[in-house]
Design a protein that fits this description.
alpha/beta; 430 residues; 21% strand; Beta-lactamase; elongated
């Protein structure tokens, strides 16, 4: 027979014992906003002033999975190691003989990757157009991709082929198809239309480099004659794109920076943390990662300080709600209305890992000063939308407690991957 806690009969019906009510109230206070409580969402948070003074906390030292907020740590690491103006270089050349009059390369087209994490079909258009201008239209041999080269998205560790040879083969095929307009699919044709419209150039002739003998890959250097170098957007703009859209292919930066364990070691040494709390499994936030809300706030302070030191603004690498597209759109009251353009931040969401989590961290402007914060809803699987609404309500309450919202001016939105990319040809290689 099902057992029930003892209840006391009154003249108006059953009532729950006083001690049960008291425990419920205590559990709710300090861990939920009123809005969150109504939805059964338990929040954890930490808030500091711009100078690091602790203003408000609830379970701030509880280890949580920060999800894609890990991308902020990866961005900090990249800025410290590479600098905001770093450009990734992809070298294109050939082996064999080139007849510029006929446009025939009797040999192989060689592409040496430089670990550019944000190379896409529009960058391939730039390369193909430059090759055509250099007199290369037909390749009798193969397209050979050497070293760390990627084109297009993969979806981070969840979508990346584990076999490096198969992965390289896929990238070589993607590049071959992108530089020959006769192989374009509907999506590539759409990107070409956008490309020529942005650049205000004629839609014809389309770029065409025909590769007759398929593709190949190599992990080792091969002899070749350089024709051009493709230089990516500056790192600061690449980071803005990755953080705005919370793109998990930010993991590709690991080739230039190191492993997820190296990132954890970087933070532990930098902050003099005990080597038993912070855990980073991926550079994107996929998987099982661990930080506390207090550490996330420290990360935000650290990113701002580094940005200032290297001569950029924090909103050059993080999105602004109400200015930028991407994952911030999930917080509608921060995107439009009185609180628009107040928040610079980063979202984090995992639907199933660790029973789900959604998190939000960043900076908000108020008349009483800037607040640096982290708020998260652990174990929110199946209630992601409700958890986000509760976090947004919590943040709006904090903003109002400090004098209301104070909007900022929008900066540059995320650039296209080719917006400031450069192609250096011929004598410029020297």
């Amino acid at each position: 027979m099902k057992q029930h806690p003892r209840r006391h009969r009154t003249g108006i019906g059953w009532r729950v014992p006083t001690w049960v009510v008291a425990i419920s109230v205590i559990a709710a206070l300090g861990s939920m906003t009123t809005d969150a409580a109504r939805r059964g969402i338990s929040l954890v948070w930490h808030v500091e002033s711009s100078d690091g003074e602790s203003l408000d906390s609830s379970r701030a030292d509880e280890s949580i999975n920060p999800a894609s907020i890990i991308k902020v740590a990866t961005s900090l690491w990249a800025l410290e190691r590479l600098g905001p103006r770093h450009r990734f270089e992809t070298i294109v050349g050939f082996s064999g003989e080139l007849d510029e009059d006929s446009g025939v390369l009797d040999g192989d087209l060689i592409v040496v990757g430089g670990a550019d994490p944000d190379f896409h079909v529009e960058n391939a258009f730039l390369v193909a157009r430059a090759l055509n201008r250099a007199g290369i239209e037909t390749v009798t041999g193969r397209l050979v991709v050497v070293s760390d080269f990627w084109i297009g998205w993969e979806g981070g560790s969840e979508g990346t082929l584990s076999d490096p040879d198969r992965r390289a083969q896929r990238m070589a095929l993607r590049l071959r198809d992108a530089i020959d307009y006769r192989r374009w699919n509907r999506g590539t044709r759409r990107e070409w239309a956008r490309f020529v419209a942005r650049r205000e150039i004629p839609a014809s002739p389309k770029p065409r480099v025909v590769v007759l003998d398929g593709v190949d890959t190599s992990r080792d250097p091969v002899p070749f004659t350089a024709v051009l170098v493709h230089q990516s957007n500056e790192l600061v703009n690449i980071l803005k794109r990755f953080n705005t859209y919370s793109n998990n292919d930010i993991e590709r930066l690991g080739t230039s920076l190191g492993s997820s364990g190296d990132l954890a070691s970087f933070l532990i040494a930098r902050w003099e943390l005990p080597d038993n709390g912070t855990k980073i499994e991926t550079l994107s936030g996929l998987g099982t990662n661990r930080m506390t809300p207090r550490e996330v706030v420290r990360l935000m302070h650290d990113l701002r300080a580094t940005c200032r030191r290297v001569g950029i603004q924090v909103d050059d690498v993080l999105p602004v709600a109400g200015c930028d597209p991407g994952t911030m759109q999930a917080f509608s009251r921060l995107v439009s209305g009185p609180a628009s353009k107040v928040l610079i931040g980063k979202t984090g969401t995992l639907t199933y890992t660790d029973d789900g989590i959604t998190a939000l961290a960043g900076f908000v402007h108020t008349p009483e000063g800037e607040l640096t914060f982290c708020v998260a809803a652990p174990r929110s699987s199946g209630r992601i939308s409700s958890a986000r609404y509760a976090e947004e309500s919590w943040l709006l309450d904090r903003i109002n407690d400090h004098g209301g919202p104070q909007a900022r001016t929008c900066g540059l939105s995320p650039w296209h991957s080719d917006a400031d990319a450069k192609v250096v040809v011929g004598s410029g290689l020297e």
